[in-house]
Design a protein that fits this description.
The complex is a heterodimer of chains A (about 280) and B (about 140). Chain A is mainly α. Helices cover about 75% and strands about 0% of the residues of chain A. The longest helix of chain A has 29 residues. Chain A starts with a helix and ends with a helix. With about 140 residues, chain B is α+β, with helices and mostly antiparallel strands. Chain B is built from one helix and nine strands, in the order H-E-E-E-E-E-E-E-E-E. The longest helix of chain B is centred in the N-terminal third of the chain and has 25 residues. The chains are: A mainly alpha (about 280), B alpha+beta (about 140).
Chain lengths: ~280, ~140
């Protein structure tokens, strides 16, 4: 039961993390009405995946692994672009939007365009869902003890959904400037992890075929098969034995973007006495 | 520099790419893992994931279509089985835990390959030797040495 739980949790957390961040971002930016579409997109993707999983099982086929890893890699890279733009957007607006979020931020987001984020949520679930659905179907049909194994996997997914809800709820509770600042730093780690994940799945997809020597052994941190490893790998893309390609990708993203976020807001040599709105205005221009 | 301007122009092509990739994943025959029953001498190799890693660590098969049936014998930290050609992944089976087997079918050319069961101890890596196929009247024989 535990191994199935860990796999369900890991796959679920990867998707729930992205969906939770998108939902919190939309909510904080005054797009609460879009939340239903996010939910619908995630559910449609999940149902679609389950259908594919059941269909493949009926046909006695395997999920074509290479293509599935390619899909994972592409979606991970698109998600990196998204999360990066959220980071940049938040930083630029951290000063100007600190008062009331609902009205001021709402104007910054074009009406209806949030559907793109809904699409991202859909693909985030699709990315992890195909593999998970195949695993779930196997757990219920092929395993020696379907109830314990299947139940473990489902339980892992349920916990992942609650983690996604927690990310959403936690993001919503913070006030806007805290949300931007704190979430910005967390998002840098998340996006760097997505880069590492893309390097990992890109390797399995047959796209990244160099720099595959393991650099360090992190099994003390993410002991394979443990619940901690499911969470750390799922959220931050840290694998037990990261390869050179994964580590380089991770650092190449983390260092510049991390510095960008951590750098003090005022870049021009302004007198420190200037009011915060002015300083923020100059940073945003 | 509006967020959604970026979103609109970046996501739509990206979504198309994803959709294409998805259809490739769903509709494709799986050129490397189709598992069609055509072709004469299919070989089957049973691989077990144990705490040490891959068991057996060293496998010899004949060139052609080879199915790897992977089971997990209670190795909690190992859930994947890979076949490598140098640094390139030829095939993989994921999410193999005790009670849930997995399999993959590969078309292998003669040569030296590496097997890998990440998380294993002394047998995390093994060898897969693919020999020239014997005559065309070779009988399908499971060979796992």
């Amino acid at each position: 039961m535990l191994p199935a739980f860990v796999i369900g949790l890991r796959e679920g957390v990867e998707a729930a993390l992205i969906v939770g961040i998108i939902a919190a971002f939309l909510r904080v930016n005054g797009k609460s009405t879009m939340l239903w579409y996010v939910l619908a997109g995630a559910i449609i993707a999940a149902v679609l995946c389950l259908g594919v999983g059941i269909g493949l099982h009926q046909a006695g086929e395997n999920l074509p692994h290479k293509q599935q890893e390619q899909l994972e890699t592409v979606v991970a890279l698109v998600a990196v672009g998204f999360v990066t733009y959220m980071i940049v957007w938040m930083r630029r607006h951290a000063g100007t939007l600190r008062a009331s979020l609902e009205d001021s931020a709402g104007t910054a987001l074009a009406e209806g365009s949030g559907f793109a984020l809904v699409g991202m949520a859909f693909f985030a679930v699709l990315r992890e869902g195909l593999e998970t659905a195949v695993f779930l179907v196997a757990a219920f049909n092929n395993s020696a003890d379907p109830q314990a194994t299947g139940g473990g996997a489902v339980l892992g997914l349920i916990v992942a959904v609650f983690i996604g809800l927690g990310i959403y709820g936690g993001g919503v509770k913070l006030d806007l400037s805290k949300f931007f600042r704190f979430t910005g730093l967390v998002l840098v780690l998340v996006a760097a992890g997505l880069v590492a994940s893309a390097a990992h799945s890109g390797h399995e997809a047959g796209w990244v075929n160099t720099l595959q020597e393991p650099v360090i052994n992190l099994e003390w941190l993410v002991e394979p098969g443990s619940i901690v490893s499911a969470l750390v790998t799922g959220m931050f893309g840290i694998h037990p034995e990261p390869t050179q390609a994964e580590l380089i990708g991770w650092a190449l993203y983390l260092v510049p973007v991390g510095l960008y976020v951590a750098w003090p807001q005022r870049r021009k040599a302004k007198p420190p006495a200037s009011p915060p709105s002015m300083a923020a205005g100059s940073a945003a221009s | 520099m509006r967020f959604f301007t970026f979103v609109r122009y970046a996501l739509i092509p990206a979504a198309l790419v994803c959709a294409v990739a998805l259809f490739a994943a769903c509709g494709g025959d799986g050129d490397d893992a189709g598992g069609d029953d055509t072709g004469g001498d299919r070989q089957t190799v049973e691989v077990t994931l144990v705490d040490a890693g891959c068991s057996p660590a060293d496998i010899t098969v004949e060139a052609g279509t080879v199915t790897f049936e992977v089971t997990n014998d209670g190795a909690g930290g190992i859930t994947e089985f890979y076949v490598y050609d140098g640094d390139r992944v030829v095939g993989e089976v994921e999410n193999v835990i005790e009670g849930i087997p997995g399999d993959m079918t590969l078309d292998l050319e003669p040569g030296e390959y590496t097997t890998k069961c990440p998380g294993g101890d002394e047998n995390e890596e093994g060898t897969l030797t693919v020999t020239e196929a014997a005559g065309d009247d070779a009988t399908p024989e499971p060979s796992s040495s």
